[in-house]
Structure prediction request, 163 residues.
Amino acid sequence: INPKLGCQIFLGEIITNIKLSPDIPISQNCSNCNICIEACPTGALRSDGQFDANKCINYLTIEHKGKISREISPKIDNRLFGCEECILVCPYQKNAQACKNKQFKFYPERALFELREILDLSNESFAARFSDSPITRIALEGLQRNALICLKNIESSVDKGTG
Prediction:
């Protein structure tokens, strides 16, 4: 986490034989903040500094192949692709400048999904709609798995009178 740039930064690596001096380490840290830990819906971020990817909604809805446990599924709520609760509450992120790189495009028509429509997508229509999107990382099967979880959670909250 960079106090000026926030927590959504790209990390890169340069391989060279040139001798480079390291930067001065950042002295500020967020070790006593805990806002992100409190915001994490599943407890993936822990107060001891450890992180459990097996509980992380970002990992589970994007990278994980296979089923998602019954214990975690309700905590996914209506998150179809990722979570970012920890990032959204980070004070450093709130003060970070928006990305100015024009190559990073936002597609507002992709920000909202009809969950039942996702269940009806074919591999061809999925590929056409998301060919240049990070959603292709989870493939149609993963997106449909996530849509089913979201629908079940929505139906459950309606049944309980909380939705």
Remarks:
- The helical segments are 35-39, 57-63, 73-76, 85-89, 91-94, 115-119, 123-130, 139-159.
- The chain has a mean pLDDT of 88.
